[in-house]
Design goal:
heterodimer; A: about 300 residues; about 75% helix; about 0% strand; B: about 550 residues; alpha+beta; five-stranded mixed sheet; 16 helices; about 30% helix; ABC transporter substrate-binding protein (chain B); signal (chain B)
């Protein structure tokens, strides 16, 4: 077990170096001087621009820039962004917001997705099942930004149930609208995965045995059918959490959520290499850790899975 | 120059928003605008994260600029028509436009109690101009004698030919600037400049408390000013979220706050701000998203305003393009200008938020003249365009092997009007023309600086201070800082200089408009239109308006 975790963590190193190098290079290759672009039509004295270029190491060749960035990263110095704010501070502001949003969305999609999926799977072919299938198909087909705008206008502006945007007041209550929008698409997938898995396991031998030995229906469904059906769902949710943590650029944009997605979007607009790579670095870690957790969850869900060989 | 490049990214999305918003405003008619106003109510306004610490001489972009303007008070301020009025200045006098004597009002203080004296101004200006302090707006002091010494740089060329300039001032203070007593500033300029005092209301000239000069970066996080507003508390700037300002009760100048405070909420996109306004979750915005330009007057009946401001757009024609050189080139530039239907484009594409240009400056400025000799070239006239083009063909045939490109960044929604202009060229002149799109403004700027754009370039200018010269000097004078296409005409330069040396503003403006006649003959750029800034406000606001530069006059907003 420990060896397994250790081995997985070791894999982080090449993944980390590879992604940061790639992303750093892509930002580097963007045309246009990002410093000059900060000033628009009227440029400040050249010495100001040159001093800024030097501050961000933009006057250095690529390998020096990247080397300095990695060196600073290992001394936990992420540097400052183009607004002269420490990148570490802005990440510390953005990540908790996105984490709240992601967790809220994950809970919504997991709870509702699994619940509806189980019911649909148990009553396969019945009215409830077909309705749920059609609705989930609809949710998958409609792009997130459409859902976002519709929710914002209906619930935020016309009905006034929630504030149309989040802005500075990012708490669980205010994030509910974007969380629903964000969770909806994955909700449909979770539902369909659970349904398929449940309906497959329903006829398994162990289910028949469990029913035959006189266990109550809820016990059979929860402890036997559901638990065994969860592996694909958990895999999906795990991968999805990583994606959600990456900041939902579209959803965060529509609802003005000051999270990672918005930060990343702005950094890309400004060609702010250090900020982009810093965010990506953290995301790599998030992905690796969530995938590791998912792998560990497998063992709990299915004791036949062993890690140490 | 404060310039906003940020632009709608999710714009595409909002077609749906448009469809739904139609029924959004329902019944929100303005019941009675004479409703009791609440002078202590705090209003919320659209903004975004400022790019620099909040120092007047370092802030040259729109989101930081609007905060700095409310936090500080300079020698002069601009009224809503752009006319400078004295604020902290008791009097500003000169006999020769070169030596100025400014009397500062006594008894004025920063919010930390430090008095504002003549010396405060002198120290602040020297700080801003000194090149080692790396202030973005340092060049605003370039007219003062001794600026060359404090702003001096050394250029080094590295092995691969890249030039780097490093500050190397030969003096710490400008020799032409002195505080002779607590209330008197004397300024000596390197040459007479009749319009110099007009710029004293610009934020670069604001006074700074001594604390700012010690550690400007730290100061810029929690600035202390002398303006109509102050920071609500230490740390009122919550990064990536908001800046909260409250009324400064000790302020006595011409811009007294009519509301209790302004909270700037940050949005990375103007779309959500517009939605917030519809739900009264935000009180005012000066950026109406492009997809709402057709509907904002019906979405916000009686709660919108669109006032022209000192801002123009041009299409620059680089002199290095062989098609536009010599006598034939001159005729072709005129033909291009006649082939643009400014009237129609401003109406159809911009929904009236632009007005067709009649000259090279802007109509809100003192001295503006819409009938400068030569300005006929801006009228749409297909027949004349064809005729001029044909004449040029006789002198030197047009090289049409490549289409005529019009370079622009397209992240800010420029494509529509450029397509329309290109179609005008195609239909009226029979040449191929198309947009040369760039994802980012930075790319266009780089290519403009290195003179490697093959065709025309979109350019624009927003006034720093309300003066004709500010639209002509920095843009079209030989080797001027923003003259990227390197236009040069000694006649034009001479007239500008004469204008600056004129005894009265009227004489100066006459010379500047004479200089514009040269521009109309040469047509280094085609004036397109002037911008008006649409603003909309919530049910919590009684009235609001924009000033000469298009910025909202936040202190004038009355809330209820």
């Amino acid at each position: 077990m420990v060896r397994f975790i250790f081995r997985r963590l070791l894999q982080v190193i090449p993944v980390f170096l590879g992604t940061t190098l790639l992303v750093y290079y892509m930002v580097f290759a963007l045309p246009g001087d990002p410093i000059a672009a900060l000033f628009g039509e009227r440029q400040p004295p050249q010495s100001v621009i040159d001093a800024l270029r030097a501050q961000y190491n933009l006057d250095q060749p690529f390998w020096v820039q990247y080397g300095l960035f990695i060196k600073n990263l290992f001394t936990f110095n992420l540097g400052v962004d183009f607004t002269q704010q420490p990148i570490a501070d802005s990440l510390a502001r953005a990540f908790p917001v996105t984490a709240m949003l992601a967790i809220e969305a994950l809970i919504i999609q997991a709870v509702f997705g699994i619940a509806f999926g189980v019911f649909a799977g148990l009553k396969k072919g019945k009215l409830f099942d077909s309705t749920v299938l059609v609705v989930s198909l609809l949710v998958i087909a409609v792009p997130t930004f459409v859902l976002g705008f519709v929710f914002q206008l209906v619930f935020g502006v016309q009905l006034g149930w929630a504030k149309p945007t989040v802005g500075a007041n990012a708490d669980w209550g205010n994030l509910i609208l974007p969380a629903i929008v964000l969770g909806l698409v994955s909700f449909a997938y979770v539902l369909r995965l659970t349904r398929a898995s449940v309906s497959e396991n329903m006829n398994a031998d162990y289910v028949r045995t469990a029913t035959a030995k006189g266990l109550s229906r809820p016990r059979v469904v929860i402890a036997h059918i559901l638990r065994n059906s969860l592996i694909p769902v958990v895999t999906y949710l795990g991968a999805n959490l990583g994606g959600l943590m990456g900041g939902a650029i579209v959803t965060e944009g529509i609802f003005n959520v000051p999270g990672v997605g918005n930060k990343l979007f702005q950094a890309i607009q400004r060609s702010e290499g250090p900020t982009i790579v810093a965010i990506v670095s953290v995301l790599v870690l998030v992905f690796v850790i969530t995938n590791l957790l998912v792998d560990l969850l497998y063992a709990w869900l299915d004791p036949r899975i062993r890690y140490d060989q | 120059m404060r310039f906003s490049r940020t632009s709608k990214a999710l714009g595409v999305a909002a077609i749906i928003a448009l469809a739904v918003t139609g029924c959004g405003g329902g019944g929100g008619s303005n019941t009675n605008s004479s409703a009791a106003t609440d002078p202590n109510k705090v209003i919320s306004a659209y903004s975004n994260e400022p790019q620099n610490p909040l120092l007047p001489a370092n802030t040259n972009e729109v989101y930081g600029g609007r905060v700095v303007e409310l936090l500080f008070e300079g020698l002069r301020a601009y009224d809503s028509d752009g006319k400078p009025v004295n604020a902290l200045a008791e009097s500003i006098e000169t006999t020769d436009s070169q030596n100025w004597t400014i009397k500062v009002k006594s008894g004025s203080k920063f919010t930390n109690g430090e008095p504002v004296t003549a010396k405060t101004f002198v120290d602040s200006w020297n700080f801003a101009a000194l090149s080692t302090n790396l202030q973005n707006n340092g060049f605003f002091f370039e007219s003062i004698e001794g600026y060359a010494d404090v702003s001096a740089v050394t250029e080094t060329t590295s092995a691969d030919g890249k030039k780097t300039s490093t500050p190397a001032p030969t003096a710490q203070t400008m020799s032409g600037l002195a505080a002779t007593d607590d209330q008197t500033i004397t300024v000596k300029l390197t040459q007479p400049e009749a319009d110099w005092s007009l710029r004293l209301g610009y934020s670069a000239f604001y006074p700074l408390p001594s604390e700012a000069l010690k550690d400007s970066k730290k100061f810029g996080e929690n600035p202390i000013g002398n303006g109509p507003y102050k920071f609500e508390k230490e740390g009122a700037w919550v990064h990536d979220q908001s800046i909260s300002l409250v009324k400064n009760p000790d302020y006595t100048g011409p811009r007294a706050a009519k509301n209790g405070g302004v909270t700037f909420k940050f949005y990375t996109d103007p779309g959500p701000a517009y939605t917030d306004l519809q739900a009264d979750n935000l009180d005012i915005t000066d950026v109406v998203p492009s997809n709402a330009l057709k509907t904002y007057t019906t979405d916000f009946p009686d709660r919108n305003s669109t006032r022209p401001n000192a801002n123009n757009a041009t299409l620059n024609i680089p002199g290095y393009n062989p098609n536009f050189q010599g006598e034939a080139g001159k005729l072709r530039r005129q033909a291009l200008s006649h082939a643009i239907n400014r009237e129609e484009i401003t109406k159809v594409i911009f929904n009236g938020t632009r007005t067709p240009a009649t000259e090279f400056t802007a109509p809100v400025l003192d001295g503006y003249n819409d009938a400068i000799p030569g300005s006929d070239v801006l009228k749409f006239d297909a027949a004349k365009a064809k005729d001029l083009w044909a004449q040029a063909e006789k002198i030197k045939p047009y090289d049409g092997s490549k289409p005529l490109l019009i370079a622009s960044n397209t992240d800010g929604g420029n494509k529509e009007w450029i397509d329309a202009v290109a179609n005008g060229f195609k239909n009226n002149l029979g040449i191929e023309a198309e947009i040369q799109p760039f994802a980012k403004f930075a790319e266009v700027l780089d290519l403009r600086k290195s003179q490697s754009l093959p065709g025309l370039t979109r350019a624009g200018w927003q006034g720093d201070y309300p003066s004709l010269y500010n639209f002509l000097g920095p843009v079209w004078a030989t080797n001027a800082s923003s003259n990227y296409e390197k236009y040069s005409n000694p006649e034009f330069d001479k007239l500008l200089k004469e204008g600056l040396a004129a005894k009265t503003p009227e004489d100066a403006n006459a010379k500047f408009n004479k200089a514009q006649e040269v521009l109309f003959t040469d047509l280094p750029g085609l004036p397109l239109w002037y911008r008006a800034t649409p603003i909309v406000w919530s049910n919590n606001v009684v009235s609001a308006e924009t000033g000469w530069n298009g910025g909202i006059r936040y202190f004038d907003i009355e809330a209820k």
